[in-house]
Amino acid sequence: MNLGDRLLLGINTTITAMLIVFVVLIFLGYVIKIISLFVEKMNLNSHKSDEVDNKSEAPVLKDEFIATQTTGSVCGELKLEAELNDEEAAAILAVIAHELRRPLNEVKIKSIKLINR
């Protein structure tokens, strides 16, 4: 076996191994997609059964998946009647948005009043 034959054998082996790796990666990608669809359907079915069980109770909030913004700039409307700094007002707005499970740009607080006890 001369140098040319060994070089061709090495190139052939390399290409074959790379093809096998890519085929396996594509196969794994499809397996992950199928599993994620299956898990998503299982979660939707469990939410539907929870809603059927909770129809007798008066729901306060809907337990729906709502995409919320976790990074970047956020906004919300706030009219202050109390003497709060911006950080306190932002904290109150963030807590209310979190409890309502709504993005901050959908939350509008008409007023915050300071109650002296």
From TrEMBL:
What single Pfam family name could you report for this chain, choosing any that match?
Answer: OAD_gamma
- What is one process in the GO biological process aspect for this record? sodium ion export across plasma membrane
| Keywords in alphabetical order | Cell membrane, Membrane, Transmembrane, Transmembrane helix
Report TM segments: 15-39
Q: Where in the cell is it found?
A: Cell membrane
List, alphabetically, the InterPro entries matched. Answer: Na_pump_deCOase
What GO CC annotations are associated with the protein?
A: plasma membrane
**Gene Ontology MF: a single term:** sodium ion transmembrane transporter activity
Q: What's the protein called, per UniProt?
A: Sodium pump decarboxylases, gamma subunit
- What lineage is this protein's organism placed in? Bacteria, Bacillati, Bacillota, Clostridia, Eubacteriales
